[in-house]
């Protein structure tokens, strides 16, 4: 049995808590949150111990994994603390605001001999997994056009989120999802060109990126995290192949908080025929965390997402930010010297 300590009793912490309850070889040992009201309510719901201090939790509680669902700007501090105490790490995305921060985390977990996985969940989302499987089997043929999009109201979780130095804004918290998936699907990105607009707080919350992969394939990616109030959380994927077109669309409730009532549809277009695929309703976060727990039990790295791949994606995000700021195409620098 893998014992989990969840850091952060907010929306994502609760999402993880619910997922772990459905994973037979996982047990929630404790939750840590400075907000005592939130933390104690979480502990009561998930039948675990509550701590207001991670230091105290590390001293008093026996657990295997630190599952970090804290604000982005706190990730490095808590990853390093957990690694020093030989805890395996699961960290929600975006893992860091800068590549150098991630590199320090990578060094710490390597030295501690523990596993670390980052929650870039589209690699476990059934429809996105299905699209990758079809492409790799060759059933779509040669890809002629690739499009992905993500639209959302601005999250109302907390004021911390509105500052780019805290969250990275829509660029890192929203746009990253589709960039990550396309890197998983198509490999490393060679160069990017991005245009967009910052909001009054300096967050790049309106972004359109063109990615050119080392393979020569290009993809268009759009992300907006300040849609009009009431606009449903929307995900789109379109792979136009020489043999088939794969199209997925989802419209959910308020910022993914009402996934159960979302409208999800996958269509395959081929020679004038349209096939609608059945919806897989299994929660992607549960699939993701079940995979991580299995990796912990087998003491092996994930074959789906590694921290090295997460670094490559973050390098791509930094290139997109550079392009947004300069108005010019930017090359992705994977060979930058590590800052540790």
UniProtKB/TrEMBL annotation:
Pfam families on file: GFO_IDH_MocA, GFO_IDH_MocA_C3
GO MF term set: nucleotide binding
Signal sequence interval, chain numbering: none
InterPro entries, A to Z: Gfo/Idh/MocA-like_OxRdtase_N, Gfo/Idh/MocA_Oxidoreductases, GFO_IDH_MocA-like_dom, NAD(P)-bd_dom_sf
Gene3D superfamilies named in the record: Dihydrodipicolinate Reductase, domain 2 (3.30.360.10), NAD(P)-binding Rossmann-like Domain (3.40.50.720)
Domain GFO/IDH/MocA-like oxidoreductase: 129-246
Record domain Gfo/Idh/MocA-like oxidoreductase N-terminal: where: 2-119
Listed name of the protein: Gfo/Idh/MocA-like oxidoreductase N-terminal domain-containing protein
């Amino acid at each position: 049995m893998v014992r989990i300590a969840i850091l952060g009793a907010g929306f994502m912490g609760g999402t993880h808590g619910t997922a772990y309850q459905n994973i037979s070889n996982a047990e929630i040992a404790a939750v840590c949150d400075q907000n005592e009201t939130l933390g104690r309510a979480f502990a009561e719901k998930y039948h675990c111990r509550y701590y207001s201090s991670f230091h105290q939790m590390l001293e008093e509680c026996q657990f295997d994994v630190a599952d970090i669902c804290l604000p982005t700007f706190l990730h490095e501090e808590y990853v390093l603390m957990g690694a020093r105490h030989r805890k395996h790490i699961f960290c929600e995305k975006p893992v860091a605001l800068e590549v150098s921060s991630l590199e320090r985390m990578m060094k710490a977990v390597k030295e501690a001999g523990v596993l670390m996985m980052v929650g870039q969940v589209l690699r476990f989302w059934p429809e996105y997994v299905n699209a990758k499987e079809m492409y790799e089997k060759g059933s779509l043929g040669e890809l002629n056009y690739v499009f992905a999009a993500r639209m959302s109201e601005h999250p109302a979780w907390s004021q911390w989120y509105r500052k780019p130095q805290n969250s990275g804004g829509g660029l890192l918290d929203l746009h990253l999802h589709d960039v990550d998936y396309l890197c998983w699907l198509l490999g490393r990105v060679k160069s990017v060109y991005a245009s967009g607009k910052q909001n009054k707080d300096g967050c790049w919350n309106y972004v359109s990126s063109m990615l050119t992969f080392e393979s020569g394939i290009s993809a268009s990616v759009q992300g907006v995290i300040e849609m009009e109030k009431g606009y449903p959380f929307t995900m789109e994927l379109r792979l136009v192949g020489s043999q088939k077109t794969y199209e997925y669309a989802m419209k959910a409730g308020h910022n993914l908080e009402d996934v159960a009532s979302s409208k999800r549809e996958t269509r395959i277009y081929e020679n004038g025929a349209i096939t609608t695929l059945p919806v897989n309703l299994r929660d992607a976060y549960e699939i993701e965390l079940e995979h991580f727990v299995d990796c912990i039990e087998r003491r092996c790295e994930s074959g789906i997402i590694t921290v090295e791949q997460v670094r490559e994606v973050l390098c791509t995000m930094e290139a997109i930010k550079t392009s947004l700021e300069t108005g010019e195409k930017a090359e992705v620098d994977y060979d930058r010297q590590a800052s540790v």
